[in-house]
């Protein structure tokens, strides 16, 4: 009788991959059609709800865009300090990835997933895009909640496919035939 036995190296690789997947953080995206529709507001409301149940929720970076209602929702939530980055003669407050990795909350809020980090700033950004910062956080086991607008989806297609394992096939067809 010819018994087929599984390859032990393949079994080990499968188990290791499953363990890595189990340790990886989860991504929750608050999605909107455009700026100002309430993505950040909804994310902050959900964060306050999670915090009220005892979950360790920390604001890594939120851009309130001067909206008083958004600022109010930030009250009482722990906020990581931003990183002052000098870029093209001005100083911008940016998300501090190292501070977030050091703090390691259960849930980290990181607004504007499609944001471009200032390449060539001082101090220099580790990644050119915020989604890459988020990917590093997920790999470290931190759950991340973020926001994104519909117009940024195509530019994030590869990222979404990498995170979810599902590739979106675009139907870019010309109206003229």
Key descriptive features of the protein:
177 residues, Rossmann fold, 5-stranded parallel sheet, two-stranded antiparallel sheet, 6 helices, 7 strands, disordered C terminus
Structure description:
The chain is α/β, with parallel strands linked by helices. It is built from six helices and seven strands. A hairpin with a 2-residue loop joins strand 4 (83-87) and strand 5. It has helices at 8-23, 39-52, 68-74, 97-103, 130-139, 157-164; strands spanning 27-32, 57-61, 78-79, 83-87, 90-94, 107-110, 143-149. It has one domain (40-164): P-loop containing nucleotide triphosphate hydrolases (Rossmann fold, 3-Layer(aba) Sandwich). Helix 2 packs parallel to helix 3. Mean pLDDT is 86; it is low at 171-177. The strands form two sheets. It has a five-stranded parallel sheet with strand order 1-7-6-2-3, sandwiched between helices. It has a two-stranded antiparallel ribbon with strand order 4-5. The longest helix is centred in the N-terminal third of the chain and has 16 residues, at 8-23. The protein is globular.
Average pLDDT, to the nearest integer? Answer: 86
User: What's the CATH class label?
Assistant: Alpha Beta
The CATH superfamily label reads P-loop containing nucleotide triphosphate hydrolases
SSE order: HEHEHEEEHEHEH
In what order do the strands lie side by side in the largest sheet? 1-7-6-2-3
- Helical amount: 25-40%
Going by helix content, strand content and strand pairing, the class is alpha/beta
Number of domains: 1
Question: What CATH architecture label applies?
Answer: 3-Layer(aba) Sandwich
* Basic shape: globular
The name of the CATH topology is Rossmann fold
How many H/I helices? 6
């Amino acid at each position: 009788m010819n018994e087929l036995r599984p390859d032990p190296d393949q079994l080990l690789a499968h188990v290791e991959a499953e363990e890595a997947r189990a340790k990886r953080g989860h991504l929750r995206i608050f999605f909107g059609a455009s700026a100002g529709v309430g993505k950040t507001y909804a994310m902050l409301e959900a964060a306050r709800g999670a915090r009220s149940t005892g979950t360790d929720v920390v604001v890594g970076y939120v851009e309130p865009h001067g909206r008083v209602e958004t600022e109010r929702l930030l009250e009482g939530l722990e906020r990581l300090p931003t990183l002052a980055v000098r870029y093209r003669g001005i100083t911008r407050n940016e998300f501090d990835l190292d501070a977030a990795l050091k703090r390691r909350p259960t849930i980290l809020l990181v607004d504007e997933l499609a944001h471009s980090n200032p390449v060539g700033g001082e101090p220099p950004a580790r990644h050119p895009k915020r989604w890459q910062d988020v990917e590093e956080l997920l790999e470290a086991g931190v759950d991340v909640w973020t926001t994104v607008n519909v117009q940024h989806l195509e530019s994030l297609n590869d990222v979404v496919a990498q995170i979810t394992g599902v590739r979106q096939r675009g139907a870019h067809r010309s109206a003229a035939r």
